[in-house]
C-alpha cells in the first residue's frame, strides 16, 4: 500500500463518516419537528447505534463500523444508516464475482482488499412518503481501485412532482462534473434497479455508478462526495411535505406490497448485499435494508 493510498483511504473513510453524521442528525430532527398530521403525537424516534466488527479467518481484526437503526418512529418506521471500513482478503467466490465484473488480473495471487462506505435505506410510516436508498463507497485492491454510489427513490404511491424534484437535485449536483454524467448515471440506475422476474423497476429511479475510476482520484472522489451531498436536499423536502397527509388502509396495504418488491430485489440481485455476506460482514448490518413489514399477494 502506497503512502498516497493511505492518505486517500483516510480521507474517504472520514468523509463517509461525516456524511453519516449529517444524515443521522437530519433524520432525528425530522422526528423531533413532526408536529402536524398522522403520528405527530407519538414519541419521536432516535437512532440506536451499534458498533460492528469483522474478523479474519485467523481471528485478526478485519475492520468494522457503525450500524445506526431507528425503529418505530413517528416519521420513519425503520431506517438504517451504516458506515464501515473493512479489509482483508477476498474469498474464492468474492474473487470470482470481482473478476467477472472488472476483469482484474492478479486477483488470485494477491486477493487483498479494502473498502469503506456509507449505506442508507429508509422505510416510512406514512405511505405517501417515499422509501429511499443511498450509498457511496470506495474499494481498493492491489490491482485497481474505484468508487461507486448513488441514490434512488422508491415510492409506493407515486407523485410526479416528487420524482421531478428528486431527479432535478441529482442533476444539479452532477452537472458541474460534466453534463453527460446525469443522463448516463440515470440510465445506469434504471438498468441496475430493475427487477427482471417482475418485469418492472424497483422505484422511480435516481442515479447509480460502480467501478468508477478515471485515473484522476481527486476528481472521482469529488464526484462521489457530490452524489452524497445531493441526498438530503433531494429527499428531505419530499418527506416534510408528505408526512402531514392522512392515509387509508388501502394506502398502507399498497405500501406493504411494494415493500415486497424491495425485499425481493435486495435478496436476489443487490451486489452490496451479496458482497457483505460473502466477505463475512455483520449480517444484521448487511440486511438492515430489509423492511420491517412486507406483504406478498
Automatic annotation (TrEMBL):
Top EC category: oxidoreductase
Pfam family, one: Coprogen_oxidas
Stored NCBIfam families: PRK05330.1 (NF003727)
SUPFAM superfamilies: Coproporphyrinogen III oxidase
Entry EC number(s): 1.3.3.3
Keywords: Heme biosynthesis, Oxidoreductase, Porphyrin biosynthesis
Record has Disulfide bond as a keyword: no
InterPro entries, A to Z: Coprogen_oxidase_aer (IPR001260), Coprogen_oxidase_aer_sf (IPR036406)
This protein's record includes keyword Protein biosynthesis: no
Pathway terms, separated by semicolons: Porphyrin-containing compound metabolism; protoporphyrin-IX biosynthesis; protoporphyrinogen-IX from coproporphyrinogen-III (O2 route): step 1/1
PANTHER family (alphabetical): COPROPORPHYRINOGEN III OXIDASE, MITOCHONDRIAL, OXYGEN-DEPENDENT COPROPORPHYRINOGEN-III OXIDASE, MITOCHONDRIAL
Family named by the database record: Belongs to the aerobic coproporphyrinogen-III oxidase family.
Self-association state and partner proteins as the record states: Homodimer.
Name of protein: coproporphyrinogen oxidase
